[in-house]
Every structure is written in structure tokens, then in C-alpha cells.
Specification:
The protein is an alpha+beta fold and about 260 residues long. It is built from five helices and 15 strands. The protein has one domain: Creatine Amidinohydrolase (Alpha-Beta Complex), CATH 3.90.230.10.
Length: about 260
Amino acid sequence: MIHIRSEYEIEKIRSACRLASHTMENVRDVIKPGITTLSISEKAKDFIESNGGEAAFLGYNGFPGAICVSVNEEVVHGIPGTRILEEGDVVKIDLGTYLGGFYGDMARTYPVGKISEETAQLMVATEQSLYEGIKQAVSENHTGDIGYAVQHFIEHRNYSVVRMLVGHGIGRNLHEEPQVPNFGKPGTGSLLKNGIALAIEPMVNAGTHKVNTLSDEWTVVTDDGKLSTHFENTCIVRDGTPEILTLMEGEEIWQKKIQ
């Protein structure tokens, strides 16, 4: 069932997303060579809880971490631990918040120290593809319009979109209908209506779109070992311009780009 949220519910989701954004801002500044992925997770958890929320991923379907911290060829669902970040790595921070009965969800990819130009180009393309997809999150469009926009943008640049994992609806539950693939055909998939909350999240690989899950049963990695990047925003489908709920300080330019 696809939920069309009331403005009261949207305000609740907005509050959860605001906490998610502030949490991401809080951990972004500590990412540097020499720190462990667990230290990032602990900082996020402490911030969320000190602001009255809960880390949505902790214990979700048995996930052992407060957030997902995925490095280099790890696409998503990296379990925070003793791994030490090194110069030139890219780290994907995917976090969810639960506040007042509703969820917020977002992801960003960050460089660790100085990265190569090729890596930087992959990051930029993935972030831009997210907003190409969000542009299509308007009433009377379909989820296929979102997926096509992401896929077309990425494949035109000779990268690939992960197909095994998709975006999703969000609200009273972390994952709700509809599914939002990062590939598709215009006019196909679920019909979008004003008030639907979506978490749109391109996962883009430098090589093949194929992925595998490691023996920890969580960490998803690229099949060819090449880099992957990930960006995600929670947004509200509107009749005109989509409303992005997880923008961070300094990202307001993206809101202007979709208008």
C-alpha cells in the first residue's frame, strides 16, 4: 500500500529528516585518515540520541550498527567496526533517524583526504543523478520516470547503476511502498501523488552494475571490486516542485536546481 501523507504527517517526517541532516553534518567533519568506521557510527548514534531520536538502523532486521559505513568497493550496508580509513578512500554514510513515530533516511559519499580525479568525477555524477531523479518526483509521474532519469544520466557517463537495491517509500516505517529503482522506463511503475514520501538513492558503480553480499550477510560489494558511490535524500512528491527534506547546510543550491 502506498501512503499519501497528511501535512501533519509530513511535518513529523520533516522533523525526523531534520535530525538526520544535522547528524550527517555532525559526522561529516570527523571523516579523515586514521579514524575507524565504528567511531563515525558512535558519533552519529550519540548525536541522534542526545536530540531525542533513535538510530533507525540499529537492530533493523538484525543489523548490528547504528548507521551504515561503507568504504570504496562496498556499496551499502557496511557494518561499522575496526577498519581504519586511509588517504584516498571514499566512505559512504547511510543513516536513518526515528523521531516522534516517523523516519528520516539519507546518505552521502565523502572523500577521505585527497582522492583521485576519477573518484571525484564518480562522486559528482552520482550526486547529480540523485537530483535528476528527484526532479521527476512530482504528482502524476511514475517511479519509472525517476529511475529512467537516474539511469540515463549515469549510463551516458559510462558508469552503471546498481539494480539489486532500490529506493523506497518512507514514513511510519523505514521501508514502505513504492519501490523506487534507479533504472526504468518513463511512464512505468507506481503512479506518484502529492504527499507521497520517498527515499531516492542512486548507488553508482565505476564498473559493472553487478554486486555481491559478503559472508557477514550485510555488506554489499561491487562484483568487480571497483568503486561505488551513494547519495540519498528523503523527499515529498508535490504537484509542482518536489520538497527535499534532508538537505544539509550548503546544499541549498540543489533545491534551486530542481525548480
